[in-house]
Fold these 4 entries.
Entry 1:
Amino acid sequence: MKFDINRFLVSAAQVLLLKDRKTADELYGMIREETAGKDVVEIGCRNGMITENAAGAANSWTACAGTEEDLRSAAKRKLPQNVTCIQAEAEHIPFDDHFFDAAVLFEAPAAGYDIERVLKEAGRVLKKDGVLIAPCYVKGNVSPMQGILLRIMNPTALLASRSPDIYEYRNLFLNNGWIEEEERICPGTLPLMYTVWKKH
């Protein structure tokens, strides 16, 4: 089996969420608040961790898994009843134009997507006033304690080395026709940037 660096990096990000419980709870709460009562598509749900913890307040939540393995992993979780899991590539979401109120895209740079195509596809399936929620770990100032943790926790160190800085991450969206509606930084072992975007 070939080593998949992108799968490894997204897994490292999920492990980090498990470790930084306060950051994870804050993230899930922000996603639940933003998606309450809405029809949501999660692009690249991987093993369903975000789905399980954040989907409960949505009207409906479609979790798109890129592989059969991801689909099986997500289906094993205790998912809320409003969740439907399907297999679909991030660049090809099998729904009509302007179908969803919100989209969730976690760790897009680490996932190895063709980001321009994914953002175009997200814009296509979102309603005119729809929002894209895109949390991502970013490079930030590292405290001495964080430096020690990064040296001990190899996957986190690799994720940190591959994470964009705040400006790089912001520009991924701005350069593809998105307007930032909200931005927060959640502190933790690595800073987690929570952003909400609307299409121009």
Note: DSSP finds nine helices and eight strands in the chain.
Entry 2:
Amino acid sequence: MRERVLVGVVALTLSCLSPAAAFAEGGTGKAGFLAQATWSAFECAVLANIAGDADEHSRLIDYGYDKGQKFMSELRGGKVKKEDFADEVPDPFISLLKGPSNDFILGRIYQSAEEEILSGEVVISEDDEMNLDEERTDAAQKKFKALNCPLIGH
């Protein structure tokens, strides 16, 4: 009986850890891939949306969300190595891993990816007079292809 209570307390304590504090000394090595896949899918989803491709936008959101949930599970499960953050996890992830739920955190990551795309080298800002709808669509389609977005998740 005592062992069950102890196991329950340990499990509860571990489940309450914030994701940013859930590092492990060892790890699976796939956390970096999951984070990169999430970030890339969200960036590409933004481009697909601007380009008017609703099917690709939806597909990439779903793929990014799935990989992001897996990343958060790895992180909360203590399977992410500190080295993964330094070497493989996109920089914005580190500052965005705080929030009440995985969905909230993934929403923040999507918003950050969107902001990065909209402020990127291909100016596709809505308030820029030089970017008419057709030019914005063309710019988004070109960047979508340049980033190899059609390959993500296939």
Note: The longest helix spans residues 54-76.
Entry 3:
Amino acid sequence: MCLRLVEVARFFVYGYTRRNIEGHLIVMIQVAGIILVLWMIGGWDYLPLALVGSILNAAVVAGVGQLPVDLNGLMRSKWKDFFVAFPMRPLEFAVGFSVGASSLRLVGALLLVLILSLVRGLNIIQIIEVLLLLASTWLDMIALGFYMGLRLRDPMGLRRVSDAAVLLLTFFSPVFFPMDFIPMPLKLVALASPTTPAAVLMRNVIGVPDGLDILPIEGYLTLHLFYLILFLLLSVRYARWVEE
């Protein structure tokens, strides 16, 4: 199983590196521009918040922004028949394809983690916790993106839903700004976003207390794991096309 998964991931890493590396570089430049603008507006104290938002934004764009659209195109092409011919379980393909398709964006996210570590002077435990939150959020988003790509078959409709999901999960959720900036009634609404607990947890890990007036850290961790399990179950439930 592991060998097949690695081979699928390697196939798509090679394909994306050769085919669309310019697009990934453009996205990284855009992220750098967002960080620069937020730093100029909020000053040096806001830079760690902008970095946290950009790290999570990379996971969201990789999973919900890019993955479902690419998966939809793959389903409409002859590549689907190529993978059907292999003795591969749906979950193996889902993980391998998702890792390969989003690998370059994760490289950018890891670079942002390094910058965040230098800016905040994080110790090894804090760095590991940030990486774990990045990995779990990325897994959360690719599970959601895989589900979207399998359920929404119309390419134009999927593109619109994907773009709207990225906006809702990043710029309309407390990802680039603290949870404490939101008035109390809207804080409860913000908890409906799966990126909210991840962002609050990451800010608290780097030493920026946030959102503890409505939930303790354990509550945000439980909510984060709930969304992760929910989207993984959904993606596994509908990853049936290889077996049909």
Note: The CA atoms of residues 102 and 113 lie 17 Å apart.
Entry 4:
Amino acid sequence: MADIILYALWAMQTVLLLIVIYQGALFHSFLSSIPILSCPQDMDQFKSLASAVMYTSLVGIPIVFICPFIILIAFKLEYFQLMDLVQGGALWLVSIILIGLIKGLEARVWQVATADEETARERDHVVHVWRHKAFPDW
């Protein structure tokens, strides 16, 4: 039973790491290719990026909160030994650190320059939805 829990925990944390790396790559790619939102195609790419991040976050956010509880409960029920606790906690901590690092890229994407006021309003709407809702509304 302990092995199954441990493998499930590692699988969830691997998925979380892949989501974080994927989102970071999306942010980096977008910022490298579009320094300013100046045409409808740029805005479409911005919306596509926001949608991808929103959907992958729906998977990643629960993992961030579930993993520590699984680790502690399994340790408390003596399914895990101390080394399992350290390994599971370390992998989770690496994920949290990477999330913190890509938050800076995400903030830069939210504040990407625009060519005009109308584009700025549209960007601000997308960012508002991105930050406050679970699903895109465009």
Note: The mean pLDDT is 90.
